[in-house]
Amino acid sequence: MFGFDSAAGILDEGYLQTEKGYGTLRGGGFRVAIRTGMPGVTPAMWDWRFGWHGR
């Protein structure tokens, strides 16, 4: 799993193993990653659909 300091690696070209899967964090938590292709989705669409989750 990417640590915060190497998180920009997700922008590297190609498919990465960490784009789908899970891992255990040092503190005992888990990190889950799921890659979902969404061609044509704009940032405004994403905000309309998922923006309320963080509120």
Automatic annotation (TrEMBL):
Keywords: Hydrolase, Metal-binding, Zinc. The keyword Ribonucleoprotein does not apply. The keyword Zinc applies. This is DAPG hydrolase PhiG domain-containing protein. It holds the Pfam family DAPG_hydrolase. Residues 5-54 form the DAPG hydrolase PhiG domain. One of its GO terms (molecular function) is metal ion binding. Belongs to the DAPG/phloretin hydrolase family. Its cofactor is Zn(2+). It comes from the Bacteria. InterPro entries: DAPG_hydrolase (IPR041526). Coiled coil: none annotated.
